[in-house]
Amino acid sequence: MRFYILIIVCFLFSINSNSQEKADPIYKFDQPNILTENSGAIFWNNLLWQHNDGGGDAAIYGLDTTTNMVIRRVTIKNGFNIDWEDIAQDVKFIYIGDFGNNLNGGRPKFTIYKIAKSDIENTSGNISVTAEILYFTYEDQPAVPVIGASNSTNFDCEAMIAVDERLFLFTKQWKGSKTILYELNNSTKIQVAKIKDSLVVDGLITGADISLSKKRVILTGYSKTGIRFMYLLHDFKGFDFLKGQKQKVLLSGLTQTESVAFINEDYICLGSEAFMGNKPRLEILNINKYFINKVK
User: Fold this and answer.
1) What residues does each domain of the chain span?
2) Rounded Cα gap, residues 281 and 250, in angstroms
3) Residues 37-46: pLDDT tens digits?
4) Level-2 CATH architecture, domain 20-292
5) Contact between residue 241 and residue 162 where contact means Cβ atoms under 8 Å apart
6) Which candidate, 7, 41, 74, 153, has a CA 20 to 30 Å from the CA of 140?
7) Distance CA 12, CA 27 (A)
């Protein structure tokens, strides 16, 4: 969801005073009007599949990244977009996370829509599919959620990856400075997300993706002063993504990055919403050199 910057001077000062390594994503194009609040992305079947934030249609859109045209729309017949925040994939399925919770922190349970790729790949044009629906709560979430002010809960999430038969969530802590890594099964209808690990990120995590080799994970986010960044995770064992090599790289530019998708092992796409007069955009970045420069 949107995070408004109140003091631009604070942003500029922070950018200029931080000596951390920075990357300059390459502007690709402004997002089509139908994706002005794009919030999640995966690259599959030669298309960049995206969805909009809360309140948008219960649909994912296939974008041709050479023409900047949406050429596919897949509507989830039994879905409803309360607060869709990320999309993930494995070999057989696409998962859409309706787990945004920044309005007042009061959501008692969360939803993931699971779509079979086989329902999409042998079709063309705009279609409708029925999803399997998974529901979950967090292991450490109060049985009765604490309702508070907007943007004040630690039980918000905008980042998810799928690996083998598991789903992993990286939360967006509004009060803390961490992201908590939770684990889910990809087929249990009602379950509790189990805490697996945590990482101090000094910001808000807004997107995640894992490479096809399953050896690289990217997290995107921004600080509370508006500085956007990415975390590069690699050399981990099994599903212990936060126990391997970790590198934080700042991203140049004033925009609100909400999604990330691997195009291949070395290139990623970054999707951003409209922000501070800037149109929603898509950027690309070669990340290989940052993985070479390993920092524990």
Assistant:
1) 20-292
2) 18
3) 999 999 999 9
4) 6 Propeller (2.120)
5) no
6) 41
7) 20
Find, among 53, 121, 60, the residue nearest to 85 by Cα: 53
DSSP assignment of 104-135: TS--S-EEEEEEETHHHHT--SEEEEPPEEEE
Q: Are strands 132-138 and 126-129 parallel, antiparallel or unpaired?
A: unpaired
Task: Point out the residues of the chain with pLDDT beneath 70.
Answer: 1-19, 293-296
Q: Spell out where 174-244 has E strands.
A: 178-185, 190-200, 204-210, 216-222, 228-234
Chain position carrying tokens 């007069």: 277
Q: Which two tokens stand for residue 89?
A: 């994939």
Radius of gyration of the chain (CA): 18
- Order of strands across the sheet that contains 256-262: 26-30, 281-286, 267-273, 256-262
What pLDDT sits at residue 278?
A: 84
Residue 2: per-residue pLDDT:
45
Distance from C-alpha of 212 to C-alpha of 218, rounded to nearest angstrom: 12
Contacts of 284 (CB under 8 A, 6+ apart): 25, 26, 28, 263, 267, 268, 269, 270
| CA 278 to chain centroid | 20
Name the residue among 115, 112, 202, 98 with its Cα closest to residue 156: 98
Q: Quick one: pLDDT at residue 87?
A: 98
pLDDT at 4: 41
pLDDT at 254: 86
Find the helix or strand (DSSP H, E) in which 291 lies. Answer: helix 288-292
**Residue 62 contacts residue 74 (beta carbons within 8 Å):** yes
Q: pLDDT value at position 80?
A: 97
